[in-house]
Amino acid sequence: MGTKYVINVDLADIWAAPDRKKLLRTIAWGDEIAVTKITSAAIEVEAVVYVAQPEGSVVTEKTTGYIVPRKGMKIKPADVVVKPAQNDVLRVNFVDVQQGDGAVIESPDGKVILVDGGDNQMFARYLAGRFRNTSAAKPKDIDCILVTHGDADHFAGLVEIFKSEEHSEPRKRLFMRPHRVFHNGIVKRPSKKNKKTVPDRELLGATRETADGLYITGLEDNLLKVTDAQMNEPFLEWKTALAQYNKRQKIDFRRLQFGDDKAFEFFNDGALNIEVLGPNTVQVAGKPALKFLGKPPEGPRIGHESLEDTDLRSSGASASHTINGHSVVFKLNYGGFSYLFCGDLNDEASRFLARESNKGTINLRSEIFKVPHHGSADFSGAFVQAVSPIVSVVSSGDESARKEYIHPRATLMGALGKYSRVPEPLVLVTELVAFFTYEGAVLPADPRKAQKRGAFIGFSRAAFGMVKTRTNGSRLLVYTDSANVELKEAYAYELDESGQPQPAPVIRV
Predict the structure, then answer these.
(1) Whether the Cβ atoms of residue 314 and residue 324 lie closer than 8 Å to each other
(2) Rounded Cα–Cα distance for residues 24 and 37 (Å)
(3) What is the pLDDT of residues 193-208, one digit of tens each?
(4) What is the DSSP track for 205-239?
């Protein structure tokens, strides 16, 4: 058994032999590795490699590998790794879940926050590989699951984690024990009642009409206390999974709103902290309430405003725009670098935040921007300008006609570049950093479809569209994987004397 260490350079290549022949894989800053020997020339490690099987599946295998600094490098093998107690790297991975969102935040001391989870098994598969060898007796402790809002493409995939416990293949199982579940308080009701379509204004719980408009007053805290009849199908499945998780460890359920920073006391540690910037509630009849938002003008449109407060002209009461606009918005700070997570924040809601930023009541400026709503056209130029990102990550994947939303929109992508604070901003899209291998003509697995359609040209996924980031508060690494084991798209930044991020060379050993 090797001794656990943590990688202390941007990228570390693992070779099959000490002579740097046959590259097995590359691991990154902050990743754990089991070390069996450190010499003056190399580090011998227990490497985990991914091996493709004849039927197309990929399994992990352990083998001996070597990290060998190139000749001429000033870095010695002993400098490539540090003991876990010395690790100061925050890891944030944005996971390819096709249409939806899913991200994993891991603090230097091992705390884990899941942010959303897509609507299929892709997030569950990634987590099962990331946190291997869990069982009913040894579940993985998850410090917090944060669901930004109640659209299925942001949380239905979390149910797949629970279902994975019954998977026939152990490598695809993940047993977890969530300690906290945070959300925005809005629970979607069934869209049909007595075979009739329920009006939008009745889909999100109790409401109250005021002189300022319609407000949702039926905000929920503990999802287990919401009756089944008051939940649509995805929420009901999520409640069922949560009830089982709650038996393992009593879950702390919490509805988040602006200023709820203390909810993250379990995670915050000095320069590492989380600020909650939304949703913004008001008091209506003595209860916290969220305003019912309307439908925006038909789009996509050209001419998104910058800092001026123009008239959006939204109309009516739209349940979908309301639940999106009141997504949980939070800022993850670590030293000189900040991440801004926005769920599916839309134009109407983000204008409010942009105005507050202009007043100086909040600070939206962030180096890494998880772009709202998969790159939708429903965005505020003023909001993007207030964020002024260096790195923007769009989580999108229109994998079928049923889920075709033309994400990301051309206007949004242009705004990300225009309103960045640097001449060459990074704009990364999860589906665009995925890689596919041409497989040739294949027949559908279903015999009926095979007979009807015949063979078609097939592609298999060779690398998931994951965007990975690492920072210790003074340096930032952003990288993606390629299907070619030798290639990585990687960028680094360091803070200058004035505390501003500047491009830096990527250190690859």
Answers:
(1) no
(2) 18
(3) 999 999 999 999 999 9
(4) S-EEEETTEEEE----S-GGGS-GGGS-HHHHHHH
